[in-house]
Amino acid sequence: MVARLVPVIAHAVAVFGDEQKAIHWLSTPLPLLGNRAPADLLATDEGIEVVERTLTRIEHNIPPYTTKSRDEQSAGLPSWSQPLP
Fold first, then answer.
1. Which residues pair with 36 in a beta bridge?
2. pLDDT tens by residue, 32-50
3. CA atoms within 13 A on the CB side of 27
4. Nearest to 4, CA basis, from 42, 35, 41
5. Does residue 84 carry a pLDDT above 50?
6. How far apart, in whole angstroms, are the C-alpha atoms of residue 66 and residue 62?
7. Which of 20, 22, 26 is nearest to 42 (CA)?
8. Residues 77-83: what's their mean pLDDT?
9. Closest of 55, 85, 59, 61 to residue 73, by C-alpha
10. Which of 19, 26, 53, 55 lies 20 to 30 Å from 64 when distance is taken between CA atoms?
11. Residue pair 56/8 in contact by the 8 Å Cβ criterion
């Protein structure tokens, strides 16, 4: 189990640039994760994947997933600016 967590923690440290900041992020409940802390999700493979994807999105400055439908997101935008399927 510990071997699966080490890469996630290392990824968090790399993303936030500091062990303390990574620990803070891992222990802070996030609305994006249903008000659960990322560390709470690390007990399952699926949770680890969610945390890794979230870190990758932060790392690459990709906005978080939204709960709005695609139609709501693209309402009023020109067709060229709408997201691809």
1. 30
2. 999 999 999 999 999 999 9
3. 6
4. 42
5. no
6. 12
7. 26
8. 45
9. 85
10. 19
11. no
